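User: Sequence recovery, please. Input:
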């Protein structure tokens, strides 16, 4: 069996100490790495005055982890710059927030080259290499320059933008061309795969040479849609853990005589949090009889505080939540509880189980696993209702959710009214069908489908990048 090497910007394996803060993706990748006697390579999250290429190697719960430290300029230009000020907003359809700076692109190229030069000596001839996400698009190109001929796959966790949007990126063709140094490129949904194909066929004048093969720039790459999932059985069990039940009891006591509406998102402009707050405000205005009947809890841990756009959205959400509470609060309750704090996964499972409604309304999202975790955490005898954005990848699978356009506060308000009034029999039927999907198309199925497709590629990449 070939060894598997996973490469990602950050490395986050489980410690084996019962830390429930580690996500399901990390658990699934760790399981694959143990099965394949593999290696997880990436940035340590630390900076150093001068890049040396020194490898930090350790074993974490049976997984070999190798990390490198980056210079402060790498962090500013590669991570905060090109990755999070250029690619992230553009790929999430926020061209108005996209920053184009030559130094960002130079830092992005430099760090991908450093990753490749540090990783290459660790690669054995039969290793499978699985590269993750937008931070590392050029990595295969840099590895090919160093003579690496292994099968290399790439998975994009975020959306791939429409062709008309992609061409606004300076150097877009060079970025896309670097994807053709991979053997397999995976996307979350058929829509994102189709957007990539459209770019290749129109802008790169490429051709579809098979049902899953695209040819351009003198090379051929396999493409596919591999929707990521969660460990549904594990999360359902987690919702029954002692800590989850304690959190559930706290939430039920706090919302006595009220229905809990929950949102859990990283603080990010792509998550539609402002639109969600305004939709809830419309609901309260349209249904004054419900003001004392509901509590909206929004959990939004702060992220990327060094990026100005994130500082601005935090200020706007503070103002919005204050405005809603100022208008609709009473001496004994507030309609909105807004928290900028991280919680353990088992605590979130308890919150989900206590919530009558979940609002998962991103403006654009690769998948959104909160939607699937909410479904997995529900009580089968009294499940809640999922309100889901049509622009989340999860909407392709969870079709029994109440699907909304997150840009419309009226649609959000109407969906809230429908969810809160939904009969038990309908709630149970919708939940059952969604849970069947979440359980069937789980994170292990996603992992095995991608790695299996990469293993099936028999023609080893022989054409090295010039």
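Assistant: Recovered sequence (466 residues):
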């Amino acid at each position: 069996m070939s060894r598997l090497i996973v490469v990602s910007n950050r490395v986050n394996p489980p410690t084996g100490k019962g830390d429930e803060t580690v996500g399901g993706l990390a658990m699934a990748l760790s399981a694959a790495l143990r099965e394949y006697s593999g290696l997880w390579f990436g940035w340590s999250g630390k900076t150093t005055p001068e890049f040396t290429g020194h490898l930090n190697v350790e074993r974490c719960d049976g997984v070999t982890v190798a990390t490198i430290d980056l210079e402060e300029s790498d962090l500013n230009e590669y991570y905060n710059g090109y990755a999070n000020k250029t690619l992230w907003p553009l790929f999430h359809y926020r061209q108005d927030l996209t920053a184009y700076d030559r130094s960002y692109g130079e830092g992005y190229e430099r760090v991908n080259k450093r990753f490749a030069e540090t990783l290459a000596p660790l690669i054995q001839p039969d290793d499978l290499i699985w590269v993750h996400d937008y931070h590392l698009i050029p990595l295969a190109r840099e590895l090919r320059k160093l003579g690496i001929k292994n099968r290399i796959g790439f998975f994009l966790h975020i959306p791939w933008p429409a062709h008309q949007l992609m061409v606004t990126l300076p150097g877009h063709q060079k970025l896309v061309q670097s994807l053709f140094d991979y053997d397999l490129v995976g996307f979350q949904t058929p829509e994102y795969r189709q957007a990539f194909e459209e770019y290749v066929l129109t802008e790169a004048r490429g051709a579809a040479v098979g049902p899953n093969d695209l040819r351009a720039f003198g090379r051929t790459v396999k493409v596919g849609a591999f929707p990521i999932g969660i460990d549904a059985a594990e999360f359902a069990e987690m919702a029954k853990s002692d800590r989850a039940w304690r959190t559930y009891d706290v939430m039920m006591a706090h919302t006595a005589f009220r229905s809990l509406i929950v949102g859990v998102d990283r603080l990010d402009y792509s998550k539609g949090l402002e639109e969600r707050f305004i939709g809830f405000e419309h609901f309260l205005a349209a249904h004054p009889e419900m003001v004392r009947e509901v509590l909206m809890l929004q959990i939004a841990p702060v992220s990327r505080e060094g990026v100005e756009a994130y500082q601005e959205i935090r200020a706007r959400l503070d103002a919005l939540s204050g405005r809603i509470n100022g208008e609709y609060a009473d001496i004994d309750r507030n309609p909105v509880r807004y928290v900028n704090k991280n919680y353990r996964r088992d605590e979130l499972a308890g919150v989900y189980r206590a919530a009558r409604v979940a609002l998962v309304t991103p403006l654009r999202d690769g998948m959104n696993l909160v939607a699937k975790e909410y479904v997995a955490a529900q009580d089968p005898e009294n499940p809640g209702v999922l309100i889901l954005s049509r622009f989340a990848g999860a909407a392709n699978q969870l079709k029994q959710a109440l699907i909304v356009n997150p840009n419309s506060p009226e649609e959000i308000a109407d969906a809230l009214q429908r969810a809160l009034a939904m009969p038990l029999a309908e709630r149970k039927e919708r939940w059952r069908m969604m849970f069947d999907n979440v359980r069937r198309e789980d994170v292990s199925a996603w992992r095995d489908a991608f790695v299996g497709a990469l293993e099936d590629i028999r023609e080893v990449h022989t054409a090295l990048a010039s």
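The two ends are 31 Å apart (CA to CA).
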